[in-house]
Fold each of these.
Amino acid sequence: MYKSSKDSANMALRQAKREYYIPKSQNPKTNPKHAWQTINDILGRNNNVNTIHEIEHSGKSVSSTEELKEIFNEYFTIIGPNLA
């Protein structure tokens, strides 16, 4: 029952995606930008870049690029041994 339910859900999901994306991709020659946005959406590409400008560390606000580099470097160099 689980396998048949999973298969039915997957088929329904594929059909829904097909019905959603096919109309969006009908005429890519008229609007290439829109066509590429649709392709990137299908492939899961995301152009949003999250940049950290300021963090709070040890009770103080840090916004200097050099200090941010040092804080992140320190954090990522000790996280492995701490988790082990």
Amino acid sequence: MRTHPFLMAGLLLGAVAIQAGDAQSGRAIDAKAAYARLKALAGEWKSDGDNGQERLSYQVIADGTAVVERDTAGQRPEMLTVYHLDGGRLLLTHYCMAGNQPRMQAQRFDPETGELEFQFVDATNLANPAAGHMHAVRLRFVDNEHLDSVWQFYENGRPKMTETSRFTRVR
């Protein structure tokens, strides 16, 4: 039986596409190493960023299986984000003052630069797909005393605003 060259090329391209899809879905990152960096944030942080004075508190809970981030700024309602591993994936759920709870999956982690990026997966209490919600997060572990964060808010299927902060460890 003779194999047609176009069939072989198609199978090869399909395998490459599946591998690329795996990398984009977050399976190619070292989720455990990224999660270990998040656990090292335990403590109190402050920033004078886009939101004025902002404070973050990180706590490792549930025998090390979740990291809770509490975010407060001025008169704004407190928000909460929970990070956890799910098999080989690193996920977060953000309990937002917008009244919805977007879930995001880590898509990229570079241990050398300290950059960790999350992308939207789905959300609870999202009125419709065009409703405003946090859609992407980029954290950068600058060193043990500094953390940069960039949160991107989407509405009507595109970016509406970006919140950027540099945090310094308080304790």
Amino acid sequence: MTIYHQQNRPMADTYPTTIERTRFDEVAGETFTYTEQLDIYPQFTPDPQLWTVADQVLALADFCLLLLNANEFIYIY
């Protein structure tokens, strides 16, 4: 799994800082667009994401999921 995660790294997400909006003017009957500055993302600190984690940690997480899913077929009396 480590080799798999080394060859297939997750892509990093980027968060927008601006958004383009289109509105309809009720008086003139025309559409207009404007760019709005998003004020939430400059101070936004995301949680650790997959692309910041080492390959060995991702492989260990896959192995732990395998073990958790395998216990469905194990019966201990």
